[in-house]
Amino acid sequence: MKDSYGRDINYMRISVTDRCNLRCSYCMSANRVFNKDILSFDEIIHICGEAAQLGISRLKITGGEPLLREGVADLIKSLKMLKGIERVTLTTNGVLLEKYAEAIYKAGTDSVNISLDTLDREKYRNITGFDCLNDVLKGIDILYACGVPVNINTVLMKGVNDDMDILRLAKDRNICVRFIEMMPIGEGRAFEPVPNSLIQRGQRLDKKGNGPAVYYALEGYKGGVGFISPISAKFCADCNRIRLTSEGFLKSCLCYDRGEDLRGAKDIKGALESVIKDKPKEHCFENRALITEKKDMNEIGG
Ligand code: SAM
Ligand code: SF4
């Protein structure tokens, strides 16, 4: 369905839990209290069925850490069976991938984004609070071997991981490393973004995918590099998404607290329609005083 600016809204991100087994310094505070009343899988499937009737054809399962929730692969399988749903993808920190890679593959997951900011064990521990880089790397190997398309999503921080050693993952495998600029949401407010324009390199490729990433080929690399630049190259004019929080609040834009509680809604399709119609023209990250969203990224799902 089109929003009031003529944008085709066909993509919904769903945070299936706000819990996480990591504490990335830019995402959520170490002493976070988690929501108790999150959506059941049946509620999520019902909402997605209604959304599909309005033209939502792509779903992203996210969190918190989605693989902490038992049965996520079954959820993906059920969502893929809904009429009108064309793609179901997953975003994970990869810590539990070794255990779930095969189930994710068998569920028919169309692609998996793995969030990983460094290949240095000490830096990983400092960023995430946990020493489990090797688990993530093993998980990536297994998922890649299954044949599931894999992207790596990396948030750069000045003086922390801006050496971009993560690009090594794209050297010998068809894996795309995508750099996402830090956004002033949640703990991210304390960080200064590294503008993607400063690090863009390689040969620009034609637009691919349905999202905001711009892709480049790197000489000598089998995989590619992508840039998602909400701060330095605002892409709101092409925004195609809405976001469902773990508690069932449907958001029209990352930046604002505007939206509707679908759980309390008698008419879910009507509520979806009104959130899409109310989608603002653009985010306001450049003017922090206008940001109304108070939630952390783990509740929203990124
Ligand atoms: N736990 C899963 C993961 O890390 O992929 C899924 C949820 S996580 C909130 C989704 C994405 O949001 C991750 O790629 C993470 O790096 C990104 N993220 C979190 N806080 C951010 C911020 N302030 N700015 C930009 N990206 C952020
Ligand atoms: Fe957890 Fe993902 Fe947030 Fe890191 S970015 S704390 S892995 S939800």
Segments where pLDDT lies below 50 for 5+ residues? Answer: none
Return the CATH topology. Answer: TIM Barrel
Count of individual beta strands: 12
Overall outline: globular
Strand order of the largest sheet: 7-8-9-6-5-4-3-2-1-10-11-12
CATH architecture descriptor name: Alpha-Beta Barrel
Helicity range: 10-25%
Topology of this protein?
Layout: E1 11-15, H1 41-53, E2 58-62, H2 72-80, E3 87-92, H3 97-106, E4 112-115, H4 121-128, H5 133-146, E5 150-155, E6 176-180, E7 203-204, E8 214-217, E9 224-228, E10 241-244, E11 249-251, E12 259-261, H6 268-277, H7 297-300
Parallel strand pairs: 1-2, 1-10, 2-3, 3-4, 4-5, 5-6, 6-9
Antiparallel strand pairs: 7-8, 8-9, 10-11, 11-12
Helix pairs in contact: 2-3, 3-5
The structure holds S-adenosylmethionine (SAM) and iron/sulfur cluster.
The site of iron/sulfur cluster has 13 residues, from helix 7.
What does this structure look like?
The chain is of the alpha/beta class. The chain has one domain (11-300): Aldolase class I (TIM Barrel, Alpha-Beta Barrel). It is 23% helix and 17% strand. The chain contains seven helices and twelve strands. It has helices spanning 41-53, 72-80, 97-106, 121-128, 133-146, 268-277, 297-300, and strands at residues 11-15, 58-62, 87-92, 112-115, 150-155, 176-180, 203-204, 214-217, 224-228, 241-244, 249-251, 259-261. Strands 7-8-9-6-5-4-3-2-1-10-11-12 form a twelve-stranded mixed sheet. Helix 2 (72-80) packs parallel to helix 3 (97-106). The longest helix has 14 residues, at 133-146. The model has no long low-confidence stretch (mean pLDDT 94). It binds S-adenosylmethionine (SAM) and iron/sulfur cluster. Iron/sulfur cluster binds next to helix 7.
